Amino acid sequence: MSDHTPWPEEFASAYRALGYWRGETFGQWLRELARRHGTREAVVAGDVRLTYAGLDHAADRLAAGLADHGLRKGERVVVHLPNDAAFFEVVFALFRLGALPVFALPAHRGAEIAHLAGQSGATAYVTARDLAVESPVPTLYADALPYAEPRELDGPDASDVAFLQLSGGSTGLPKLIPRTHDDYLYSVRASAEICELSEESVYLCALPVAHNFPLSSPGVLGVLHAGGRVVMAPAPTPDVAFPLIEKEGVTMTALVPPLALVWMAARRKHDLSGLRVLQVGGAPFPAETARRVGPELGCRLQQVFGMAEGLVNYTRADDPDEIVHTTQGRPISPHDEVLIVDEDGRPAETGELLTRGPYTIRGYYRDADPSAFTDDGYYRTGDLVRRTPSGHLVVEGRVKDLINRGGEKVSPEEVEACLLTHPAVLDAAVVSLLDPYLGERSCAFVLPGGTPPTAAEIRAFVREQGLAAYKVPDRVEFVTAFPTTGVGKTSKKELRAALRAGLRGEV
Ligand code: OOB
After folding, report:
1. Average pLDDT of the chain, as a whole number
2. Which of 226, 137, 145, 151 is closest to 188 using CA atoms?
3. What integer pLDDT is reported at residue 487 of this predicted model?
């Protein structure tokens, strides 16, 4: 069993011949950036200002220290850090060593960290004091990292897996996504070019940096690639972000739709005129809201439709406004292959998006859930899309069982599994509930057994089991029986319909 499904040789050699995969690792890439931009500022976080050379050197020292600590090439390390400078030092040290960061989000709690550590077989957990949860593997704190004298290390190959990211996108329990140096660096370079980044670019990282959107679409890595400056926001709220935009001369940032709404509604004492581009993605962004971004925030909107599994779509700087307002962009690469198919796999106008290409994985880590890929290697995104004559994709809905809570992805199955461990829960079904602000919220239908618990008890229980707060059901409804489908499965369609009808009558 190999840890990752490689691209078939004919695809790999084509991607190399096209210059997409360059045989460069992230460690080498940072070395080259330090050579080119050495004294320029790379990362600003609070009082810390790291230059390109400073980051390069810190990564070397930390890689040596971690090696002394016993960490070896190929080992996995859960990285659970806030938007801070330490994130860059840790991740680039691991890249240099050829150890694989397993990216956790700050919102993740004990259950997610244990899942990530267990699934990846991690040997260490790197975190910050105020985020730390109990971990099944030894913990290293960001304020007590083992730096040592730099030395030559036997690093990874560019075709090796660079890191593991959590899938937000597919049905079932969250799975691990293996991304190689070659494929990820291609997406970073190509994204930086599409987004016209340069040394003048100043990017505010307001979303959690370990997520694929702010990490590489074009995100912090794209901005570093262009020699620009990354400014880390400890929170995405206007009170934190606006002063930073003004003070640091931020030119670009990325938000999920609910935050874009909050930014538009906020009273502004700060001068945001330096902000040229606001990217919005991660969840549906209605055209009526999209149209407001330009006039209300004084910057250009860019829609981004991506997934940690690979494919990322952008609206382009020279797209007409109507396209930017009404579509979710078009793929990065001319070699992104996109199919739109009906339930029988036949081409359709509106249908499920299937994709393969130079930076889309061919399988999950250790081949979890092979059914998420077709026999000829396309990833089944679970997203319902159509394509405009201009080649842009419009997300119309989805076929996967997933709740997109303003960009934060909730797997109903994961929450149901948690609810079923409650002694007074016989059965549970978690479905989405439409919400004007988040797009969707979650509702848990619970069939109680024994003494019925209260909704508050159910919610507290989920939290106590160590799940992230965004996975706690927003609403809990008790039922005496579940509506069923023809074959006797719980009908989530009927549960959702009952919610829309305001739960009048029997569910
Ligand atoms: C991004 O990545 P993930 O892995 O958290 O979630 C992927 C899923 C997509 O399959 C789709 O269902 C949804 O999130 N999604 C969107 C969207 N962008 C993502 N749905 C509607 N409109 C959009 N613009 O969310 C992600 C990764 C890289 C860049 C941007 C977003």
Report:
1. 96
2. 226
3. 85
Distance set, CA 33 to CA 25, 29, 59, 90, 263 (Å): 12, 6, 13, 17, 33
Contact 252, 206 (CB under 8 A): no
Token couple for 439: 């797009």
Sole residue written with tokens 């790379």: 42
Kindly provide the residue ranges of all beta strands, DSSP E only, lying in 113-269, ordered along the sequence: 124-127, 139-141, 161-166, 176-180, 202-205, 229-232, 252-255
Domain pair 27-334 / 403-500, same fold: no
Q: Does ipTM top 0.95?
A: yes
Tokens of residue 174, six digits: 């969250």
- What percentage of residues in the chain have a pLDDT greater than 90? 94
Domain extents in the chain: 27-334, 403-500
Contacts of 474 (CB under 8 A, 6+ apart): 433, 435, 441, 442, 443
The fold adopted by the segment(s) 403-500 is GMP Synthetase; Chain A, domain 3 (3.30.300)
Q: What's the pTM value of the predicted model, to 2 decimals?
A: 0.96
Q: What is the DSSP string of 33-69?
A: HHHHHTTSEEEEETTEEEEHHHHHHHHHHHHHHHHHT
User: Does residue 315 line the site of ligand 1, with CB under 6 A?
Assistant: no
Crossing angle of the two packed helices 26-37 and 181-194, in degrees rounded to 10: 40
Spell out the long-range contacts of 85-89 with Cβ–Cβ below 8 A and sequence spacing 24 or more.
85/43, 85/45, 85/46, 85/48, 85/50, 85/232, 86/128, 86/142, 86/143, 86/145, 87/209, 87/210, 87/232, 88/42, 88/43, 88/50, 88/55, 88/59, 88/220, 89/55, 89/58, 89/59, 89/62, 89/145
CA of 312 to the centre of ligand 1 (A): 8
Is the domain spanning 27-334 CATH 3.40.50.620? The answer is no
Ligand 1, closest atom to CA 409?
5
Which atom belonging to ligand 1 lies closest to the Cα atom of 254?
30
* 142-165 tens-digit pLDDT: 999 999 999 999 999 999 999 999
477 lines ligand 1 (CB under 6 A): no
Give residue-wise pLDDT tens across range 438-448: 999 999 999 99
Alpha-carbon distance 480 to 482, whole Å?
7
